[in-house]
Every structure is written in C-alpha cells, then in structure tokens.
Amino acid sequence: MQSLKDILSVLAPFLLGLVTSYLSDKRNTRQDSHSFLVDDYEAVVKENKELRRENEKLRKELSENETKHTSN
Fold first, then answer.
1. What CA–CA distance (Å, rounded) separates 5 from 38?
2. How many distinct structural domains can be found in the chain?
3. Which domain holds residue 41?
C-alpha cells in the first residue's frame, strides 16, 4: 500500500499537468472553431453600416424629389 502511495505521489503532478494541458488545449480548440463567427459578425456589421449609409442617401434623395414635386 505504501509503494502505491509512493508511485501516486510521483505520478500525480505529472498526471495533473497532462489533464490541465488537455483541458487548456480543448478550450483553445473550442474558441478557435468559433473564430469564423467573429469574422461573420464583423462582415455583417460592416455591411449593415454600408446599408444604413445607402438608406440615408436614398431617404435624402426621396425627400428632395418630394419637395420638388410639391413645389411644382
């Protein structure tokens, strides 16, 4: 029984290091697999800004056209 404790006392830090490393790698892999979502989100935000600018431009243009038609 004492020899088993001796073996475990030697192996425990090593095994703990392996488990910690495994869990850390697993977490990094999980984050990496979702990095495409960040890219998609940034692309959508950029496109949304462009569409808002275009929308504002078209609203202004429409407003100017309505003003011309009502004054004629």
1. 48
2. 2
3. 35-72
